[in-house]
């Protein structure tokens, strides 16, 4: 559906996007993930024809953005970050203007506006000016904007940034619904966001792709081993360290003071192979320490993300 | 072309959403009315010559106020991104915005027809000359709008866009009165650049292709420069 080949963008001397190659299949929901300034927005802007690439090619449905930018724009619905819509217009006027631009006939326009009003729950705000809308409502109008022409590909730049938790859930549900039939590419720097909505995650850092795959793939492919947090009451720090280090499968132990009184906290870093939890428990059971906390910090996307994007 | 007309429609409507349009119209009418009629009865002639001779300079001040928001506001708000990712070409956008500006110049000139009607009661008014002058005024306005559009495409700050536009338009309007600054050799070329001189011919009722060509080429240069700026921004 979308074929990105060695895409590069320079802003003067600064390389914002560095030879990105990416293939997106029909019906995928892809999350572009990365810290601020990683090149997500720049990539999306090139994809939607707002920027011209410095080098490389983008082909959408086998049409290059160089050959026929207008045809590419027609298949892509785009919502820029924070939905910069025309402020002074009524929601209805705005969407109606957009429908005209997309060349919808009068009857098709009425039908499409009705569908979008239902899908994005806009019925109540059609006759409000856009500048009076809250951020969440504006974002919903933005989604309607992006979907006006019923495009096959939907590109959303940070669709949930700046929204409150309820609005985020609403927008996420709309995206999920759309994603059943359409190809969706969205960018975000919130990991739970990507995990919740996307089939596939592409992590970008400093303009390069550093990971690409489903959340499971990415979790499986990183080297980071598990950490087990243990809190023990009535124990001596040195003794704890000594005993736990002796357990097989333990790579290192960090001792720290716990928030609770008379409690020692130990972060046990495991070796990448094996699961020492049973041995750890047996070791602790043999002492007269009181175990108050035993918790495996699973490899969340957060830790993986931090590991992948850490500056060297 | 259809897309350009749609953009024109939106832009033109947008003028009347904000009160700026009405303020500009009111101020323009106040200024022309006062400047024109304060000497009208002294001159004791039933024509609009002195009204039209005000226009090159007055429009140079008014048109950039009309055009300053056309691109700058979009760049500032970010809707420029939305505009550019719609299925429209640069040409559609520029022509649409340009036409909206010209139509608005038409809208501020429209009430001044009442001057002509009023004068026709006082004496014998040559309507042919008046009609020619209005066409000339629109051509002049179009050239200024193109310049203002270019100024607006340069910056996201409307004030800067306005001032840049005013400076360029005002130079075109008064350059014929500053010819003594220029060396003999380029005098004619500089004189040709004067919008006031070309407009004066039309306002007299003389339709000369050279004058029309001047306004059309100024318009084209302004629009083409805007196109280049948009290209550069990508």
Descriptive overview:
- The complex is a heterodimer of chains A (312) and B (234).
- Chain A is of the alpha/beta class and 312 residues long.
- Chain A has two domains: 2-221, P-loop containing nucleotide triphosphate hydrolases (Rossmann fold); 227-298, Alpha-Beta Plaits.
- Chain A is 35% helix and 29% strand.
- Chain A contains eleven helices and 14 strands.
- Chain A has helices at 40-47, 69-75, 91-101, 106-119, 135-147, 165-179, 191-197, 215-221, 237-245, 277-285, 301-309; strands at 2-11, 14-24, 29-33, 55-60, 63-64, 76-79, 153-157, 183-188, 200-205, 208-213, 227-233, 250-257, 263-270, 290-297.
- The longest helix of chain A has 15 residues, at 165-179.
- Chain B is mostly helical.
- In chain B, helix 1 (2-17) packs across helix 5 (90-109) and helix 7 runs parallel beside helix 11.
- The mean pLDDT of chain B is 89.
- The interface between A and B is medium-sized, with 27 and 21 residues.
Main β sheet profile of chain B: none
Helical fraction of chain A equals 25-40%
Number of helices of chain B: 11
User: Could you say which structural class the secondary elements and strand pairing of chain B correspond to?
Assistant: mainly alpha
Task: State the helical fraction of chain B.
Answer: over 70%
DSSP E strands of chain B, number: 0
Pick out the low-confidence regions of chain B.
none
Shape summary of chain B:
globular
Quaternary arrangement of the chains shown? heterodimer
Radius of gyration of chain B: 18 Å
Give the total of beta strands of chain A. 14
H and E order of chain B: HHHHHHHHHHH
**Span from first to last CA of chain B?**
22 Å
CATH level 4 superfamily of the largest domain in chain A: P-loop containing nucleotide triphosphate hydrolases
Question: Could you state the order of secondary-structure elements of chain A as H and E?
Answer: EEEHEEHEHHHEHEHEEHEHEEHEH
Biggest β-sheet: strands ordered side by side in the sheet of chain A: 6-7-8-3-9-10
Mean pLDDT of chain A: 84
């Amino acid at each position: 559906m979308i074929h990105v080949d060695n895409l590069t963008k320079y802003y003067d001397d600064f390389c914002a996007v560095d030879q990105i190659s990416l293939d997106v299949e029909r019906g995928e929901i892809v999350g572009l993930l990365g810290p601020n300034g990683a090149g997500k927005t720049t990539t999306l802007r090139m994809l939607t024809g707002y920027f011209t690439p410095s080098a490389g090619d983008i082909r959408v449905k086998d049409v290059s953005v160089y050959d026929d930018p207008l045809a590419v724009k027609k298949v892509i619905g785009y919502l820029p970050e924070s939905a910069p819509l025309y402020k002074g217009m009524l929601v209805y006027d705005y969407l109606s203007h957009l429908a005209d631009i997309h060349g919808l006939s009068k009857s098709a326009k009425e039908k499409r506006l009705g569908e979008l009003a239902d899908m994005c729950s806009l019925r109540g705000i059609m006759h409000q000016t856009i500048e009076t809308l809250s951020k969440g409502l504006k974002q919903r109008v933005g989604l309607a904007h992006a979907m006006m022409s019923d495009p096959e590909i939907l590109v959303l730049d940070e669709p949930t940034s700046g929204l409150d938790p309820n609005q985020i859930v609403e927008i996420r549900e709309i995206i999920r619904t759309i994603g059943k039939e359409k190809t969706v590419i969205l960018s975000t720097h919130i990991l739970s966001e990507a995990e919740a909505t996307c089939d596939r995650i592409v992590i970008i850092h400093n303009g390069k792709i550093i990971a690409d795959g489903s959340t499971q793939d990415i979790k499986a492919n990183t080297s980071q081993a598990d950490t087990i947090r243990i809190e023990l009451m009535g124990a001596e720090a040195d003794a704890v360290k000594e005993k736990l280090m002796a357990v097989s499968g333990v790579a290192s132990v960090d001792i720290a003071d716990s928030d609770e009184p008379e409690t020692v906290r130990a972060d046990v870093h495991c070796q990448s192979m094996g699961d020492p939890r049973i041995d750890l428990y047996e070791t602790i059971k043999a002492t007269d320490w009181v175990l108050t906390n035993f918790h495996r910090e699973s490899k969340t996307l957060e830790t993986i993300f931090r590991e992948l994007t850490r500056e060297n | 072309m259809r897309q350009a007309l749609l953009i024109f429609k939106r832009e033109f409507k947008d003028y009347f959403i904000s009160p700026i349009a009405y303020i500009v119209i009111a101020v323009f009418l106040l200024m022309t009315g006062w400047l024109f009629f304060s000497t009208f009865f002294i001159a004791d002639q039933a024509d609009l010559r002195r009204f039209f001779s005000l226009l090159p300079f007055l429009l140079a001040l008014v048109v950039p106020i009309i055009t300053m928001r056309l691109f700058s506001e979009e760049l500032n708000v970010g809707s420029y991104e939305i505009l550019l990712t719609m299925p429209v070409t640069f040409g559609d956008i520029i022509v649409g915005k340009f036409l909206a500006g010209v139509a608005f110049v038409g809208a501020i000139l429209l009430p001044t027809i009442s001057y002509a009607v009023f004068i026709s009661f006082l004496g014998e008014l040559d309507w042919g000359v008046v009609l020619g002058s209005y066409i000339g005024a629109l051509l002049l306005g179009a050239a200024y709008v193109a310049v203002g559009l270019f100024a607006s495409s340069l910056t996201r700050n409307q004030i800067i866009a306005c001032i840049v536009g005013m400076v360029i338009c005002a130079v075109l309007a008064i350059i014929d009165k500053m010819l003594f600054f220029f060396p003999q050799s380029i005098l004619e070329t500089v004189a040709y650049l004067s919008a006031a001189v070309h407009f004066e011919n039309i306002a007299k009722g003389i339709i000369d292709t050279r004058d029309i060509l001047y306004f059309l080429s100024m318009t084209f240069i302004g629009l083409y420069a805007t196109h280049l700026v948009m290209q550069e921004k990508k």
